[in-house]
Design a protein that fits this description.
Farnesyl Diphosphate Synthase, single chain, 15 helices, 2 strands, globular, 75% helix
Amino acid sequence: MTPTAPGIQEEAGLRAVRERVDAVLRDFLDGKARSADGRGLPAEVVDTLRSFLTAGGKRIRALLCVVGWHAAGGRGDAESAVRVAASLELFVAFALIHDDIMDDSASRRGRPAVHRVLRTRLIPSQRAERLGSGGALLIGNLALIWAQELLHTARLPPERQCAVHALYDAMLEEVMYGQYLDVMGAGREPDDVEAALRIVRYKTATATVERPLQLGAAVAGAGADGMARFTALGLPLGEAFQLRDDLLDVFGSADGVCAPGLGDLREGKRTVLLALGLQAADPGQRQRLGELVGRPDLGESGAREVRTILESTGARERTEAMITTRHEHVVRVMDAAGFPPAAHRALLGLAVAAVSYTS
């Protein structure tokens, strides 16, 4: 008998999807741990990745994948959609671990970043920092390899398997290009809004929303029209998600759940928010932003000055407006798409969560 996916009419249904995805990940990593033990390989590799995966995260990409399957008619084996969704979570682990290495981030999801965790297992030294980053790089690589391996267990008919793997490969390529643009963009003009948006599209928007929805739809056998609808709603929603993330990192959330941070400002991250601020800044404000943003030792006093400039230039307000415009576009696309009612409601809920989350 073909298993059915958990219903998505209510939040309880989405929780059930998360639980199914987590169960697949748990079983997969248990198998990897047994294999490592039998071959005398270090257990800490699987343990570190497992710890990273269980540290938090909303499983938004996995949920969108399964919702995309429902929205495209939910045809075929539901377990196939769940396994593709679980594969996406391993891919996300790879991307975040590598991102933290490149940014030398201290933490992720309230815990030390993987490269920082590995450093603590070595004798403190400058060499330990390099080795910790190298070890994290390899664990991230394994997460990507295992994501592909798990994807191959989805048991899809040949034509749907080809479609799913083509979309997955496109997603990987887009994220690599986006990450490259992000890294190399740090040395280029910081007030180019379109360049900042291009980074958002390739590094975040495609892999966070568009491709997960399309992957679920491909499992259900969706055609070109269905894929186009998911692009029309997925790209702007993914952009809104990243714009919200950029605002939260600098300003925190109004409810206090997310405190203002220093990460993006210390890294000199070329965000849309910063580009808008620089475009509207007067010469004095522009000079101060240039002096403060990107300083590894930036303190709270300097960060407050940056926030004040981004407020007074209207950059924060304009970023909020961009989020609102994209969300409204997404709602119009969904209203015209004719998705099944339960999938429509779930997508609307996930869209709200993507643009208004606070942690």
